[in-house]
Amino acid sequence: MPRETMRNPLVKLSLVLWVFASMLACVWLAVRAQAQPSIGTVTDFSTAEYFDPPHENQVKLLITGAEAQLQSGGRYLVRKLKLETFRETGQREITVEAPECLFDSTRRLASSAGHLQVETGDGRFRVEGEGFLCDLRSDQPNLTISNRVRTVIRKLPPTQSKP
Amino acid sequence: MKILWPTLVLAGFGVALGAQTNPTAPAAKPAERPPTQITSDSVDFDLKTRTAVYRGHVRVADPTMSLSCEILTAKVPESGGSFDSIIAEQNVVIDAIDGKGQTNRAMGDRVIYTHKVEGSVTNEVIELTGNPRLEAPQGALTGDTIVWDKANNRVRATNQKMIFNTGGTNQFLTGFEKPADAKK
């Protein structure tokens, strides 16, 4: 993807949200892998995904959470969710934070009445709001932030804007 | 008028502003530009169509301009790059400060920014409809439709009326630059 394209905030946002959708799917997989259905809850969980060689020692995706509860109907309630993606250089790319997130693995919906914040690692773009619904179905991926939406687009000085 | 219209580009609803330069910043000492902020009641991001729709009390605040409307839609083409279109709807008000520190205002029910690249030609057009009005300290322009062809730096207005402020008295000019298609 051309660099100019990546500088377009909405293109970047699309990428961010795609990553967000992917990361939520990873949360589901991570929680499912770590939590036994009979237990139902895991605490202070974290999981990381690494780049392919030659950057196999570099973290690509880091997911942490204070608690994940398995609920009925294939739903997971995740508290203090934090997802971070990184470049091969180790530079943080995207951070997603939600104090609480309910993930419906059957319908592939992530939602919360609480806060959501998505921010790029370079600080160029941040969107936050209260209450969200993220539809992760591949035919109509969509994110809605329902209340008090605030988007900040920052243009950095040239020396800082280059990765 | 040339001062006013470029500010409408800034009305690219903030998302376009990331690519803008700050004309007032000293060239030798690049400083961080104050951020552009968009606030609204809600937002929908359709990842398939690459469209963001801000709804309800939409406000765009930028160091050089501010915009308010009820619905703000921005769409990015699949290939990325510049926006296909940015649309502000319902009670659109854009205030922009020109190089002299004067506030210019554009109003209308609908403002559409479109961007197309055909071959080696880039076309950028901003269209105001729904009781559009441009106000500057020197005067005002109204019409059924006001269109700025940015690539050719031309402003067209249908059924236009210009009001010049001439030191206490206003002079009205009407119908002197109707585009050909307005007569059809």
What distinguishing features does this structure have?
heterodimer; A: 163 residues; alpha+beta; lipopolysaccharide transport protein A fold; 7-stranded antiparallel β-sheet; 7 strands; globular; disordered N terminus; B: 184 residues; mainly beta; 13-stranded antiparallel β-sheet; 1 helix; disordered C terminus
Oligomer: heterodimer
Number-wise, the strands of chain B total 13
Top CATH class of chain A = Mainly Beta
CATH topology of the domain at 4-17 and 37-137 in chain B: lipopolysaccharide transport protein A fold
- Structural class of chain B, please? mainly beta
The first-to-last residue Cα distance of chain A is 14 Å
Shape of chain B: globular
Number of helices of chain A: 3
CATH class descriptor name of the domain at 4-17 and 37-137 in chain B: Mainly Beta
Radius of gyration of chain B, in angstroms, nearest whole number: 17 Å
Strand content of chain B: over 45%
Indicate the CATH architecture of the domain at 4-17 and 37-137 in chain B. Sandwich
Q: Which bin fits the share of residues in helices of chain B?
A: under 10%
Structural shape of chain A:
globular
- Give a short account of the largest sheet of chain A: 7 strands, antiparallel
